[in-house]
Amino acid sequence: MTDSDIMIEDLCFQYPGGHVALEHINMYVKCGSISALLGANGSGKSTLLQCMAGLLRPQHGKIYIQGKPIASYKKELYKKVGMIFQNPDDQLFEPTVSDDIAYGLINLGFNTFEIHQAIDHIAARLNIGDMLDKSIGSLSCGEKKKVAMAGVLVMQPDILLLDEPTSGLDPLSAYELMQLVKDISISTGVSVIVATHDVDMVPVFCDYVFVLQAGHLCLSGSPEEVFMCKKAVRDARLRLPRIEHLVEILHRDGMNIDTTCFTIGQARRQLLKLVGKK
Ligand SMILES: Nc1ncnc2c1ncn2[C@@H]1O[C@H](COP(=O)(O)OP(=O)(O)OP(=O)(O)O)[C@@H](O)[C@H]1O
């Protein structure tokens, strides 16, 4: 299948202690798209991302990256698929920011000139140029998240897996980080899967949504399609994005609003029209 970056067939994963974390997952991720992976705590989001990154080996089922089973990539998989962990301290282990960003490139055999060029480019893109000489230990959580992202993006993966990238960030930093992810996806064509509890971000930044409930994929589709299934969303212990919840309240109060509008600007204009302000 040419337009799919990731295809998952009947994936099951059980941890060594016996806990079944994923059951019969089937997923298809379109090239260049941004997908949200939603689900309550313990629903299996991190486990699924780690299976896609080749860090966990499922007992059953297959994962294909660009049409080929992940096992066939061997070491090359780490160049194709970049994963950013929930906790940046699990990812950053070199003394300084520039050393950490350089780590993957050194392993891939890049020369010193290429490494410097690549670091300068990604640092400018992520606006972390003034941090390059800092020690990792001196950074804030948000800064560490950006450095972890730089270390992965510098290797130019085709697929980017983000595990709760906005957790612990202030609202503006969270928005800016997701905007950056969107810009990078548009300019490079990288496919992004982001596990998140931040449902408000989903209609703004994501093309597709996958919802996990106790290790099962219970819903999938565009944000419009998924958030229309209000009961199923709540059964999965999620809430609607605030904008959708507002639309729901207005409907309940007998106001007529076009539920196909999903950008903040469109919804705001509709709401102002409804309450009589132009
Ligand atoms: N190393 C492990 N050994 C045994 N069970 C584990 C292990 N890691 C995770 N689990 C269990 O697998 C299930 C799925 O965990 P996972 O971390 O994938 O959930 P999650 O959706 O990412 O949760 P959260 O939103 O809290 O990060 C949970 O019940 C968890 O307790």
Automatic annotation (TrEMBL):
Any one GO molecular-function label of the UniProt entry: ATP hydrolysis activity
- Which topology term describes how it sits in the membrane? Peripheral membrane protein
Its principal location? membrane
**UniProt superkingdom:** Bacteria
Keywords tagged on the record: ATP-binding, Cell membrane, Membrane, Nucleotide-binding, Translocase, Transport
Ranges for domain ABC transporter: 6-239
Query: What family classification does the UniProt entry report for this protein?
Result: Belongs to the ABC transporter superfamily.
Query: What InterPro entries does the entry give?
Result: AAA+_ATPase, ABC_transporter-like_ATP-bd, ABC_transpr_CbiO/EcfA_su, ECF_ABC_transporter_ATP-bd, P-loop_NTPase
Name of the featured protein = ABC transporter related protein
Location of this chain's protein in the cell: Cell membrane
